[in-house]
Amino acid sequence: PPAPAPVASAPEAASAPAPTPAKVYVVGTDAAYAPFESQNDKAEIVGFTIDVVSAVAQKAGFEVKFVNTPWEGIFNSLQQGDRDLLSSSITITEERKQTMDFSAPYFDAVQLIAVKADSKVARFDDLKKLKVGVQTGTTGDEVVTKLLGKTSSNVKRFESTPLALKELEAGGVDAVVADNGVVIHYVANNPDAKFKTVSDSSFAPEQYGIAVKKGNTELLDKINKGLADIKADGTYDRIYAKYFGA
Ligand code: ARG
Questions:
Q1: pLDDT in tens, 12-45
Q2: Ligand 1 centre from 138 Cα, in Å?
Q3: Cβ partners under 8 Å of residue 233, min gap 6
Q4: Ligand 1 atom closest to Cα of 142?
Q5: How many A from CA of 159 to the centre of ligand 1?
Q6: Do residues 193 and 212 both lie within one domain?
Q7: What is the Å distance from ligand 1's center to 205 Cα?
Q8: ipTM greater than 0.85, yes or no?
Q9: Closest ligand 1 atom to 37 CA
Q10: Which helix (H) or strand (E) is 212 found in, with range?
Protein backbone atom coordinates (compact mmCIF):
# COMPACT_ATOMS: atom_id res chain seq x y z
CA PRO A 1 0.00 0.00 0.00
CA PRO A 2 1.22 3.52 -0.68
CA ALA A 3 2.92 5.24 2.24
CA PRO A 4 0.78 7.94 3.84
CA ALA A 5 1.55 11.40 2.56
CA PRO A 6 4.07 13.18 4.73
CA VAL A 7 2.71 15.93 6.94
CA ALA A 8 3.61 19.09 5.09
CA SER A 9 4.11 21.23 8.14
CA ALA A 10 6.52 18.80 9.78
CA PRO A 11 9.28 18.02 7.30
CA GLU A 12 11.48 16.60 10.07
CA ALA A 13 8.81 14.00 10.95
CA ALA A 14 10.36 11.26 8.80
CA SER A 15 13.55 11.15 10.80
CA ALA A 16 12.12 12.11 14.22
CA PRO A 17 11.54 9.20 16.62
CA ALA A 18 7.94 8.28 17.33
CA PRO A 19 6.69 10.31 20.29
CA THR A 20 7.00 8.27 23.46
CA PRO A 21 3.60 7.80 25.08
CA ALA A 22 3.17 9.56 28.44
CA LYS A 23 4.50 7.42 31.24
CA VAL A 24 1.85 5.74 33.35
CA TYR A 25 2.70 5.79 37.04
CA VAL A 26 1.03 3.32 39.36
CA VAL A 27 -0.46 4.99 42.43
CA GLY A 28 -1.04 2.95 45.58
CA THR A 29 -4.00 4.00 47.68
CA ASP A 30 -5.92 2.33 50.48
CA ALA A 31 -9.37 3.02 49.09
CA ALA A 32 -11.31 2.63 52.33
CA TYR A 33 -10.91 6.21 53.42
CA ALA A 34 -13.79 8.34 52.24
CA PRO A 35 -13.96 11.15 51.30
CA PHE A 36 -10.25 11.01 50.44
CA GLU A 37 -9.95 7.67 48.67
CA SER A 38 -12.68 5.07 48.43
CA GLN A 39 -14.47 2.79 45.99
CA ASN A 40 -17.86 3.71 44.56
CA ASP A 41 -20.55 1.14 43.77
CA LYS A 42 -18.92 0.49 40.40
CA ALA A 43 -15.69 -0.34 42.25
CA GLU A 44 -14.03 2.74 40.79
CA ILE A 45 -11.51 4.46 43.03
CA VAL A 46 -12.76 7.98 43.73
CA GLY A 47 -12.28 10.86 46.12
CA PHE A 48 -10.42 14.05 46.97
CA THR A 49 -7.01 12.38 46.69
CA ILE A 50 -7.86 10.92 43.31
CA ASP A 51 -8.97 14.29 41.95
CA VAL A 52 -5.88 16.05 43.31
CA VAL A 53 -3.39 13.50 42.00
CA SER A 54 -5.16 13.28 38.63
CA ALA A 55 -5.01 17.07 38.28
CA VAL A 56 -1.33 17.09 39.28
CA ALA A 57 -0.56 14.42 36.70
CA GLN A 58 -2.42 16.27 33.98
CA LYS A 59 -0.48 19.46 34.69
CA ALA A 60 2.84 17.69 34.93
CA GLY A 61 2.27 15.60 31.80
CA PHE A 62 2.18 12.06 33.09
CA GLU A 63 -0.57 9.49 33.48
CA VAL A 64 -1.67 7.73 36.62
CA LYS A 65 -3.37 4.46 37.38
CA PHE A 66 -4.79 4.03 40.89
CA VAL A 67 -4.46 0.61 42.46
CA ASN A 68 -6.24 -0.27 45.68
CA THR A 69 -3.50 -1.24 48.13
CA PRO A 70 -4.08 -2.33 51.73
CA TRP A 71 -2.62 0.19 54.17
CA GLU A 72 -0.57 -2.45 55.97
CA GLY A 73 1.47 -3.27 52.88
CA ILE A 74 1.42 0.14 51.27
CA PHE A 75 4.89 1.40 52.22
CA ASN A 76 6.40 -1.92 51.27
CA SER A 77 4.74 -1.79 47.84
CA LEU A 78 6.62 1.45 47.17
CA GLN A 79 9.89 -0.02 48.42
CA GLN A 80 9.43 -3.08 46.17
CA GLY A 81 8.69 -0.94 43.13
CA ASP A 82 5.17 -2.33 42.74
CA ARG A 83 3.87 1.24 43.10
CA ASP A 84 5.54 4.40 41.77
CA LEU A 85 3.86 6.72 44.19
CA LEU A 86 1.52 6.56 47.14
CA SER A 87 -1.36 8.86 47.74
CA SER A 88 -3.38 7.63 50.64
CA SER A 89 -3.86 10.52 53.07
CA ILE A 90 -0.37 9.76 54.33
CA THR A 91 0.81 12.03 57.11
CA ILE A 92 4.33 13.30 56.57
CA THR A 93 6.34 12.22 59.62
CA GLU A 94 10.04 12.34 60.48
CA GLU A 95 10.10 8.56 60.76
CA ARG A 96 8.52 7.99 57.36
CA LYS A 97 10.87 10.53 55.79
CA GLN A 98 13.72 8.15 56.60
CA THR A 99 12.39 5.58 54.15
CA MET A 100 10.60 7.57 51.44
CA ASP A 101 10.40 11.05 49.98
CA PHE A 102 7.35 13.26 50.28
CA SER A 103 5.90 15.98 48.11
CA ALA A 104 5.00 19.36 49.51
CA PRO A 105 2.02 19.02 51.85
CA TYR A 106 -1.38 19.11 50.14
CA PHE A 107 -3.82 18.78 53.05
CA ASP A 108 -3.96 19.63 56.77
CA ALA A 109 -5.35 17.11 59.23
CA VAL A 110 -5.51 16.37 62.93
CA GLN A 111 -6.61 13.40 65.01
CA LEU A 112 -10.22 13.32 66.15
CA ILE A 113 -11.98 11.03 68.64
CA ALA A 114 -15.24 9.27 67.76
CA VAL A 115 -17.42 7.98 70.60
CA LYS A 116 -21.07 7.05 71.09
CA ALA A 117 -23.28 10.11 71.56
CA ASP A 118 -23.89 9.24 75.23
CA SER A 119 -20.20 8.77 76.07
CA LYS A 120 -18.64 10.71 78.95
CA VAL A 121 -15.33 11.05 77.10
CA ALA A 122 -14.47 14.75 76.91
CA ARG A 123 -10.75 14.72 76.15
CA PHE A 124 -8.04 12.40 74.86
CA ASP A 125 -6.79 11.64 78.37
CA ASP A 126 -10.16 10.12 79.23
CA LEU A 127 -9.32 7.20 76.91
CA LYS A 128 -6.50 5.96 79.18
CA LYS A 129 -8.48 3.13 80.73
CA LEU A 130 -10.79 2.45 77.79
CA LYS A 131 -10.72 0.20 74.73
CA VAL A 132 -9.69 2.26 71.74
CA GLY A 133 -9.90 1.29 68.07
CA VAL A 134 -7.34 2.49 65.52
CA GLN A 135 -6.21 1.57 62.02
CA THR A 136 -2.95 -0.36 62.34
CA GLY A 137 0.18 1.66 61.71
CA THR A 138 -1.52 5.02 61.32
CA THR A 139 -0.73 8.20 63.19
CA GLY A 140 -3.90 7.47 65.18
CA ASP A 141 -2.33 4.16 66.24
CA GLU A 142 0.83 6.05 67.24
CA VAL A 143 -0.88 8.55 69.56
CA VAL A 144 -3.17 5.97 71.15
CA THR A 145 -0.30 3.52 71.69
CA LYS A 146 1.63 6.33 73.36
CA LEU A 147 -1.28 7.18 75.69
CA LEU A 148 -2.30 3.64 76.61
CA GLY A 149 1.17 2.07 76.56
CA LYS A 150 2.95 -0.18 74.07
CA THR A 151 1.80 -3.39 75.71
CA SER A 152 -1.77 -2.34 76.44
CA SER A 153 -4.35 -4.84 75.30
CA ASN A 154 -6.85 -1.98 75.19
CA VAL A 155 -5.45 -0.76 71.86
CA LYS A 156 -7.58 -2.56 69.27
CA ARG A 157 -6.00 -2.46 65.83
CA PHE A 158 -8.00 -2.80 62.63
CA GLU A 159 -7.09 -3.23 58.98
CA SER A 160 -9.12 -0.18 58.00
CA THR A 161 -10.61 2.84 59.71
CA PRO A 162 -14.22 1.95 58.73
CA LEU A 163 -13.76 -1.46 60.41
CA ALA A 164 -12.69 0.28 63.62
CA LEU A 165 -15.73 2.56 63.43
CA LYS A 166 -18.05 -0.43 62.84
CA GLU A 167 -16.64 -2.00 65.97
CA LEU A 168 -17.40 1.20 67.89
CA GLU A 169 -20.97 0.94 66.68
CA ALA A 170 -21.10 -2.70 67.77
CA GLY A 171 -19.80 -1.76 71.22
CA GLY A 172 -16.52 -3.68 70.97
CA VAL A 173 -14.46 -0.53 71.56
CA ASP A 174 -15.25 2.64 73.52
CA ALA A 175 -13.66 5.09 71.11
CA VAL A 176 -11.87 5.37 67.78
CA VAL A 177 -9.05 7.80 67.06
CA ALA A 178 -8.42 8.65 63.41
CA ASP A 179 -7.90 11.56 61.02
CA ASN A 180 -10.57 14.25 61.40
CA GLY A 181 -11.73 14.25 57.77
CA VAL A 182 -12.54 10.57 57.65
CA VAL A 183 -14.21 10.57 61.09
CA ILE A 184 -16.38 13.59 60.26
CA HIS A 185 -17.41 12.02 56.95
CA TYR A 186 -18.30 8.71 58.59
CA VAL A 187 -20.31 10.31 61.39
CA ALA A 188 -22.23 12.48 58.93
CA ASN A 189 -23.04 9.51 56.68
CA ASN A 190 -23.94 7.03 59.41
CA PRO A 191 -26.49 8.82 61.62
CA ASP A 192 -27.82 5.47 62.87
CA ALA A 193 -24.47 4.79 64.53
CA LYS A 194 -25.22 7.68 66.92
CA PHE A 195 -21.66 8.90 67.26
CA LYS A 196 -20.26 12.22 68.33
CA THR A 197 -16.77 13.60 67.88
CA VAL A 198 -14.41 14.92 70.53
CA SER A 199 -11.44 17.08 69.62
CA ASP A 200 -8.41 17.70 71.80
CA SER A 201 -5.87 20.49 71.52
CA SER A 202 -3.04 18.12 72.46
CA PHE A 203 -3.17 16.47 69.02
CA ALA A 204 -0.35 17.73 66.80
CA PRO A 205 -1.18 19.19 63.40
CA GLU A 206 -0.58 16.73 60.56
CA GLN A 207 -0.08 17.23 56.84
CA TYR A 208 -0.66 14.80 54.00
CA GLY A 209 1.96 14.29 51.34
CA ILE A 210 2.37 12.18 48.23
CA ALA A 211 5.18 9.65 48.70
CA VAL A 212 7.73 8.40 46.19
CA LYS A 213 10.60 5.96 46.56
CA LYS A 214 13.59 7.55 48.26
CA GLY A 215 15.72 9.25 45.66
CA ASN A 216 13.09 9.38 42.91
CA THR A 217 13.62 13.11 42.45
CA GLU A 218 12.55 12.97 38.82
CA LEU A 219 9.00 12.01 39.76
CA LEU A 220 8.97 14.09 42.93
CA ASP A 221 9.92 17.23 41.02
CA LYS A 222 7.09 16.65 38.55
CA ILE A 223 4.61 16.11 41.38
CA ASN A 224 5.70 19.24 43.23
CA LYS A 225 5.56 21.30 40.05
CA GLY A 226 2.07 19.99 39.28
CA LEU A 227 0.92 20.64 42.85
CA ALA A 228 2.20 24.21 42.75
CA ASP A 229 0.46 24.72 39.42
CA ILE A 230 -2.94 23.43 40.57
CA LYS A 231 -2.70 25.55 43.71
CA ALA A 232 -1.83 28.64 41.65
CA ASP A 233 -4.53 28.28 39.00
CA GLY A 234 -7.50 27.53 41.27
CA THR A 235 -7.84 23.83 40.41
CA TYR A 236 -6.92 22.75 43.92
CA ASP A 237 -9.46 25.14 45.45
CA ARG A 238 -12.21 23.82 43.18
CA ILE A 239 -11.45 20.23 44.17
CA TYR A 240 -11.32 21.22 47.83
CA ALA A 241 -14.70 22.96 47.61
CA LYS A 242 -16.23 19.92 45.88
CA TYR A 243 -15.43 17.73 48.89
CA PHE A 244 -15.27 20.05 51.87
CA GLY A 245 -17.23 23.14 50.90
CA ALA A 246 -15.76 26.54 50.23
N1 ARG B 1 -3.01 10.07 58.03
C2 ARG B 1 -2.90 8.84 58.72
C3 ARG B 1 -1.50 8.29 58.61
O4 ARG B 1 -0.77 8.68 57.76
C5 ARG B 1 -3.89 7.79 58.26
C6 ARG B 1 -3.93 7.55 56.79
C7 ARG B 1 -4.72 6.30 56.43
N8 ARG B 1 -5.03 6.29 55.03
C9 ARG B 1 -5.80 5.37 54.45
N10 ARG B 1 -6.10 5.49 53.20
N11 ARG B 1 -6.20 4.35 55.14
O12 ARG B 1 -1.11 7.45 59.35
A1: 555 667 777 778 999 999 999 999 999 999 999 9
A2: 5
A3: none
A4: 12
A5: 11
A6: no
A7: 14
A8: yes
A9: 10
A10: strand 211-213
Q: How far apart are CA 108 and CA 93, in angstroms?
A: 13
Q: Do 185 and 121 share a structural domain?
A: yes
Q: Is the dihedral of CA 200, 126, 166, 83 positive or negative?
A: positive
Length of the chain, in residues: 246
CATH of the domain at 163: 3.40.190.10
Best mutation site among 45, 106, 138 for ligand 1 pocket (most ligand atoms within 8 Å of CB): 138
Question: For residue 66, how far is its CA from the centre of ligand 1 (angstroms)?
Answer: 16
Segment 50-105, tens digit of pLDDT: 999 999 999 999 999 999 999 999 999 999 999 999 999 999 999 999 999 999 99
Q: Are residues 66 and 139 in the same domain?
A: no
Give a yes or no: residue 11 inside a domain: no
The answer to whether 174 touches 119, Cβ cutoff 8 Å, is yes
- List the domain range (segments joined by +) for residue 86: 23-108+207-244
pLDDT score for 13? 53
Please write the tens of the pLDDT for every residue from 197-246. Answer: 999 999 999 999 999 999 999 999 999 999 999 999 999 999 999 999 97
Rounded to whole angstroms, the Cα distance separating 179 from 206 reads 9
Q: List pocket residues of ligand 1, CB cut-off 6 Å.
A: 30, 33, 37, 71, 88-91, 135, 138-139, 161, 179
For the chain, how many structural domains are there in total?
Answer: 2
Residue 7 lies in a domain: no
Same domain (yes/no): 91, 120: no
Judged against a pLDDT cut of 70, whether residue 3 lies above it is answered with no
